[in-house]
Amino acid sequence: MKKVSVECRNIYLSYGKTDVLKGVNLLVHPGEFFALLGPSGSGKSTLLRLIAGFNRASRGELLVGGKRIDDVPPDARDIGMVFQSYALWPHMSVWDNVAFGLVERRVARGELRERVQKALDLVGLSEFGARRPNQLSGGQQQRVALARTVVIEPQVLLLDEPLSNLDKNLRVQMRQELLALQRRLGITTIFVTHDQEEAMTTADRMAVLDRGIVQQIGSPAELYDLPVNPFVANFVGTMNVLPATVTRRTDAAELLIAGAGVLYAAPDAPGAPEAATGALVLASFRPQHVRVADPGSARDQALAWLGGTVKSSEFLGEMVRYHVSVGDYVVVADQAHEAGRRPIAPTSPVFLGIHPRHIRLLESHD
């Protein structure tokens, strides 16, 4: 199977006076597993349907394998799509559902049988061909939908939240199977999801969308460690974001958090070299990088410390998540759970320590 790229060049799409996609530019590399991540209404499914040919851009260019396909009808694009609802024919057997696309393409009977059997073997359903969709579990139905799509050997595979109808444990299993299948086929795949965990555990790279605009593109680690703005920072994981003023520049940037205290950003911390004295910035740091200490304990002098009061706590199994009031702000701090250790009670005074290397400075638009 030939691996192809998918490229969007300055894509705009509107429904009436409502702009849904606004200048989308992205390049999906040949054979890549690429995720479109964003909240409901961000435009990710609209973009996927545009690539499939069900939506048409107001302006811009769409290329597959370097060739423009803006005017190519959906059935001639050689693109396969798995829908959120699976869209299986309830009156047909599994075998006939998988064979449907080949029948429509008038594939010879011998080749059709061989390709359907191969597709069912690929998704582990070789013994389920005679069953109807309502006789299968949700995970099995999803496999049938995948087999029906890959059997036509498309050059691009589109997945529109295919795991959203499954329970959590089955979603984890199916995303692993989905990635393994994609790796075996080597097919260029674009996967739409609003679930950051799904995107981060499957995608080679991903694009985060908000209100029709691509906010950032990169690997899961790049987007998690180096978000370009507060939206990405909070959508890909959890991030504390505190307004700050750069009050002094030596090697580190001294950051005054009004009414809360002072933090420091290391000289090589993202955003720190560009922060001039007097600049308004956003000091951001992840909850797992916050150390919680009671007032009577010794405090590491390599960390900057903010005093606060525990507002609430959540027991999450492997960790306890604290919400701590610090001045006018609430800071989230994750601490590893230890058996027999009781969480710090609400209203308790605490100190929060953050190392300068864990501070990232984001641009403030205030």
What labels describe this entry?
366 residues, alpha+beta, Rossmann fold, OB fold (Dihydrolipoamide Acetyltransferase, E2P), 2 domains, 6-stranded mixed β-sheet, 5-stranded antiparallel β-sheet, 8 helices, 20 strands
Distance N to C terminus: 51 Å
Residues in helices, as a percent range: 10-25%
Largest sheet, in brief, is: 6 strands, mixed
The average pLDDT score comes to 91
Number of contiguous helices: 8
Radius of gyration: 25 Å
Spatial order of the strands in the main sheet? 6-7-8-3-9-10
CATH evolutionary superfamily of the largest domain: P-loop containing nucleotide triphosphate hydrolases
Shape: elongated
Query: Spans with pLDDT under 50 lasting ≥5 residues?
Result: none
CATH fold name of the largest domain: Rossmann fold
* Number of spatially distinct domains: 2
